Amino acid sequence: MQQLKQEIEMKIIVAGRKEFLAKGFVKATVRDIARRAGISLGNFYTYFKGKEDLFVTIVEPVHQRMNKLMMDFFNYEAGKNFRDADFVSQFISHTAMSLTFLIQNNRKDVIMLLDKGVGTPYEGYKMQLVHMIEQDFKEDLRAQNAEHTLFHTPNGALFLIAKNLIEGIIETAKHVENEEDLSRTLRYFIHYHLNGMVSLLEV
To answer: Do residue 36 and residue 95 come from a single domain?
Structure first.
C-alpha cells in the first residue's frame, strides 16, 4: 500500500514537471496534471494541496542547492583580485564545474525555478540572483577602484552584465544537453563575463 502511494505521488510529480515546463505555472492546471498522471482530479488532492504545493515540492530542493552554490561562489572569490589571471582561471573552472554538475543532475528543475516560476513563491528569485551578483561585482571591483563611475549608476553596466549572465545560464540549461558541451559553454560564458567586468575598470 505504501509503495503504491509513493508510485502515485511520483507519477504526479513527473506529470507536474512536464506540465510546468511546457506551460509555466500560471497556465498549468491541476486537471491536466491529473490527466497526465493517469489519476482522478480528487486523487490529486490526496497528495498535494494544489498546484503551488506541487511546484514547491518539485523545485525547493534545487532552490536550496542553488542558494548554497551561490554562497560557495561568493566565499570562494571573497577578497580576491580579479586582475590575477591565475585566480580568474581557477574561479572560472570551479564555477563552471559546479554549475555543470547542478544543471546536469537537475536540469528540468533548474529551468522551472529560474524560468517557469511566475505566480509562485519563486517568481522573484531570478532577479534576486541578478542583484546578488551585481552587488558582489560592485564590492569586488570597488576594492580596486572605489572612485570609478561604474558604481554610481543604478541598474547600470554591472546590473546588465549580471542579468545577462543569469539569462545565459538559463538558455544554456535549456539547449545544451551534452555534459562536455555544457561544461565548455559555461566556461566560455563565465570567462566572457568576468573579463568583460574587469575590463570596465579601464574605461
So the answer is: no
Same domain? 67 vs 95: yes
The C-alpha cell 566572457 sits at: 192
SS3 93: helix
E strand or H helix that includes residue 170 = helix 157-175
pLDDT digits (tens, 9 = 90+) for 76-122: 876 667 778 888 888 899 999 999 999 999 999 999 999 999 999 99
pLDDT digits over 107-117, tens only?
999 999 999 99
Instruction: Give the Cβ contact number of residue 31 at 10 Å.
Output: 11
For residues 182 and 105, the answer to whether their CB atoms sit within 8 Å is: no
Cα separation of 13 and 73, whole Å?
31
Q: Within 10 A of 4 (CB to CB), how many other CB atoms are there?
A: 8
- Residue labelled with grid coordinates 554562497: 71
Distance set, CA 73 to CA 92, 99, 174, 193 (Å): 10, 10, 22, 15
Q: Are residues 93 and 189 in the same domain?
A: yes
Question: What DSSP designation does 81 have?
Answer: -
Task: Return d(Cα 175, Cα 182) in angstroms, integer.
Answer: 9
